Amino acid sequence: MRGIHKGWMILTLLFFTMLASLGFGRFSLGAILPFMREGIGLDYKEMGFVASAAFFGYLISVAVVGYFVVRFGSKLVINISLFIIIMGMVICANAVSFSFALLGCLLLGVGSGGSSIPAMGLAGKWFSNKKKGMAIGIAMGGVGLGIVISGLLVPSIVSMSVEGWRFSWYILALVTSVFIFINALFLKNAPEDIGLKSVGEGEVVKRNVTSTVESPIEGGGDKTVYRNKKVWVIGFIYLSWGFSYLVFSTFLVDYLMIDIGYTKELAGLFFSIAGIASIASGFIWGVLSDILGRMYALSVVLIIQFAMLIALSFTNSVVVIGAEVVIYGLTLWGVPTIMNASVADFVSSSTVPIAMGFVTIFFSVGQIISPIVTGLIIESTNQYFGAFILSAVISLIGGLTCLRMHYIQHAKQRLYLKSNNVNM
Questions:
Q1: Out of 8, 204, 282, 313, which residue is the most buried by the measure of CB atoms under 10 Å away?
Q2: How many CA atoms lie within 13 A of 310 on its CB side?
Q3: Residue 27, exposed/middle/buried by CB under 10 A (0-12, 13-18, 19+)?
């Protein structure tokens, strides 16, 4: 009887790596920042700059992480980056001013980018092309679990002490250190390192005819990453989502407390509900993208998010907001899952880490701009309505761009099949 492929154990480690990397290192900020703002005495403009510092650090990191992965291997880069996250958490826990909060969040961003990009790359390396979307989606589930933990943990600790947000950072840092230790013992850079093939590789061999037909359309040929037009389009779509989802993921708790008037416990509960729903989102949309096509699945995700952001702006009903939060959560990690799987479809395997880092630069730019713009809108209007509407419109633009790209690819594929007398 054949045993379980070690790739599944590696995927479990990557799930917890993503939990620490983005779940704790990035998205815990959405739960902690409102209380951190009150504790340090930041205004909304400063709060926007603190959030942007994390995204700027992320941008710096993803711009170079691919080259470090190629030179030193994913495992070492992941663990060093997780240690940088711990440093950022400790600084945030001891922050007494705007500048300290800025530095701590900058390090959180650097560590998050440096660990999440190679983690998603490893998921793709340990699983075949036809299972890549599913594998990256499962790893992304760790981010959703991080949102759940943050949404439940932080309000509970803050309700016991006004300095509870500081204790929250220390707890997250401690858990992250455990993941570093486990990775050091068991994480591997590639299945070939221990004499294995990737999970599902046998299935890919059976589909060689299909793969050969698709390669002139979906493969990047021998173009470099930076000259590949499809990679640039993917990057700009990723930028639109980087801008759009920030309002939901960073300001949801504050919006529910300030604009709607919910208690911090109820707002934190909704944040956790979104996190619970999002745990399965990467898997769901990763599998659908494997079946339906990357761009078509991505367009559906972005259009659903547009509808939910609009709906969230026009209601204060607990039941309706709960339903909207669940639906948005069920799509949340579909975007980065499909994005990173798409990159692997368009470039050679040796340049995947570089291409992932490149498109994530666009995403990071969207993240940097978003909290500054939305912070100014909130500051000038004293409400979140304008920020949510702007976020929704940009999500719609991204979705329509995906749909157009899908139909262009489909038309080219039909033309290629026809010219080569291949039956579809």
A1: 282
A2: 11
A3: buried
CA-based end-to-end distance of the chain: 37
Structure tokens belonging to residue 292: 């339906």
Q: Are 137 and 284 in contact (CB under 8 A)?
A: yes
Task: With respect to residue 27, please indicate whether it lies within any of the assigned structural domains.
Answer: yes
Per-residue pLDDT of the chain (424 residues; tens, 9 = 90+): 457 888 899 999 999 999 999 989 887 887 788 888 888 988 878 887 888 888 789 889 988 998 898 889 999 999 999 999 999 999 999 998 899 999 999 999 999 999 999 998 898 888 877 788 889 999 988 988 887 888 778 878 877 887 888 999 999 999 999 999 999 999 999 888 888 888 877 654 343 333 333 344 344 443 577 888 888 999 999 999 999 988 887 788 888 888 888 887 888 788 778 878 888 898 999 999 888 888 999 999 999 999 999 999 888 888 999 999 999 999 988 998 898 888 877 777 677 778 888 898 898 888 778 878 888 888 888 888 889 999 999 999 999 999 998 888 777 777 766 776 655 5
Structure tokens at 170: 């220390």
Q: Please name the residue ranges forming H helices in 161-200.
A: 164-186
Residue range of the domain that includes 17: 6-196+207-419
Structure tokens at 214: 């698709």
Please give the C-alpha separations between residue 285 and each of 335, 338, 409, in angstroms, as whole numbers: 8, 7, 19
Residue 1 lies in a domain: no
Specify the CATH number for the domain of residue 282.
1.20.1250.20
How far apart, in whole angstroms, are the C-alpha atoms of residue 169 and residue 165?
Answer: 7
Q: Which residues are CB-contacts of 232 (< 8 A; sequence separation ≥ 6)?
A: none
What is the rounded CA–CA span in Å between residue 127 and residue 118?
14
Full-model pTM: 0.79
Domain total of the chain: 1
